[in-house]
Amino acid sequence: VQLQAFGGGLVQAGGSLRLSCAASGVTLDYYAIGWFRQAPGKEREGVSCISSSGSSTYYSDSVKGRFALSRDNAKNTVYLQMNNLIPEDTAVYYCNMVIRNRNYWGQGTQVTVSS
């Protein structure tokens, strides 16, 4: 099982990015997917999560109203649309899934928001 996160980059405050989490070796249809981020000197924090069906989503207070999760099970990919980015969103973003109590992480993608 491998997860690959990509789509990060450098963007000005107020801009947008879309992160993708693509899976191989597993069919995402049956699993919830989470996004986490880790800023320099800070602990990794949960940002958002989407249920296996896509019908339920969770967002942390810091991103609610600005980020949106979606999934395309046909492409085995989950997307994190990030709008109205602020410098505090600067971090390495990771996608995550849990299979039989084992955590799988993508390699992380850097998001940098300049003021």
The radius of gyration computed from the alpha-carbon positions, rounded to a whole number of angstroms, is 13 Å
Biggest sheet layout: 7 strands, mixed
Q: What is the N-to-C order of secondary-structure elements (H for helix, E for strand)?
A: EEEEEEEEEEE
Structural class: mainly beta
Uncertain parts: none
Outline type? globular
* Proportion of residues in helical segments: under 10%
Mean pLDDT: 94
- How many beta-strand segments? 11
- In terms of DSSP E residues, the strand content is over 45%
**End-to-end span in angstroms?**
37 Å
Count of individual helical segments: 0
Question: Would you give an account of this structure?
Answer:
The chain is mainly beta. The chain is built from no helices and eleven strands. Strands 2, 4, 5, 6, 9, 10 and 11 form a seven-stranded mixed β-sheet that branches. The radius of gyration is 13 Å and the shape is globular. The protein starts with a strand and ends with a strand.
